[in-house]
Design brief:
- This protein is α/β, with parallel strands linked by helices and 276 residues long.
- It has one domain (3-268): LarA, N-terminal domain (Rossmann fold).
- 29% of the residues lie in helices and 24% in strands.
- The protein has helices spanning 13-23, 54-67, 85-91, 94-103, 135-138, 180-191, 224-234, 243-249, 265-268; strands at residues 3-8, 34-38, 72-77, 107-112, 118-120, 132-134, 142-147, 150-152, 156-158, 195-205, 211-221, 259-262.
- The strands form three sheets. The chain has an eight-stranded mixed beta sheet with strand order 4-3-2-7-10-11-1-12, sandwiched between helices.
- The two termini are 32 Å apart.
- The relative contact order is 0.20.
Length: 276
């Protein structure tokens, strides 16, 4: 969990992901269902890069099915104040992606977590006590968080860890905002993502912009804290500035000082403004 791949994006997402996976020892043991969580935070992507782009998830799915064509893959998101998940799946190309994969004979579907069966979990965390969460998430064979580097007025940054907030099934997710760091850490402890990917080709200042910064990078790792710590440094921040990263670090979800393989952080960094 201590190694992170930092890859320079050139002209192929597939090649960047393959290179990154090779640096961190591949996927590891894959088991169905493979649950893929992109960051689909809004129906109105003000920058064109505030939502995880479907071509990144398409490339990821191609690599998963290349490894094991019998995998069941589920792309998940919940409703929120700023979107209906099914409408967003359709708008951003995820519905079409799944239809194409099914026509090719593969078991790939989207799941709106706000309409999925829930299961009570015997878990006492910093915020949750015996939460009811989507069964598909709790019974995932392998969980992948596919995020974007963004600043955020509540959580300082949005990365692989903050992306987990989108599994909460209630539409009024602002209910959790006052304790967002505790909520993120509890979800990370429950889910413990097997793989975290940051599509850092373009970073965003603010959860939906308006400013973007070209980074031309991909960040991959098996420890979500390690990946987000690397992402923070690419954005010219330190993990110690971000409460949910440091709190998740205390729960052995990766290290804030990972071994970065590939490009150097210094060669890829850009100066992001801290969120207001």
């Amino acid at each position: 969990m201590s190694s992170v791949a930092l890859i320079k994006y050139k002209d192929s997402i597939n090649k960047a992901l393959e290179e990154g996976l090779a640096h961190i020892g591949g996927f590891g043991a894959l088991e169905s269902p493979v649950v893929v969580k992109p960051n689909i935070c809004t129906i109105s992507d003000g920058t064109g890069y505030s939502v995880t782009r479907v071509e990144t998830v398409r490339a990821l799915i191609e690599l998963l099915l290349k490894t094991d064509e019998k995998l069941s893959i589920r792309i998940i998101e919940s409703d929120s104040q700023s979107k209906d998940a099914e409408e967003a799946f359709k708008k951003f190309g995820y519905t079409e992606l799944c239809e194409e994969e099914r026509r090719a004979g593969f078991d790939v579907n989207t799941v709106d977590l706000s309409r999925a069966p829930l299961m009570e979990l015997q878990f006492i965390g910093d915020y949750f006590e015996c939460p009811k969460l989507p069964e598909i998430v709790l019974k995932a064979g392998y969980f992948i968080s596919v995020a974007i580097p963004k600043t955020h007025y509540l959580s300082f940054i949005t990365g692989a860890l903050k992306n987990l907030f989108g599994i909460l099934p209630r539409k009024d997710q602002a209910f959790y905002h006052s304790k967002i760091d505790d909520v993120i850490v509890d979800l990370a402890r429950i889910i413990r993502p097997n793989l975290s990917i940051i599509d850092a080709r373009v970073g965003v200042e603010g959860w939906n912009g308006p400013k973007t910064r070209r980074l031309d990078a991909f960040i991959l790792g098996h420890g979500a804290v390690s990946v987000d710590s690397t992402m923070a440094r690419i954005m010219s921040f330190e993990p110690q500035q971000i409460h949910h990263i440091m709190n998740a670090y205390d729960y052995d979800l990766g290290t804030i000082h990972p071994n970065v393989i590939g490009e150097s952080i210094e060669s890829m960094a850009a100066k992001f403004k801290p969120p207001k």
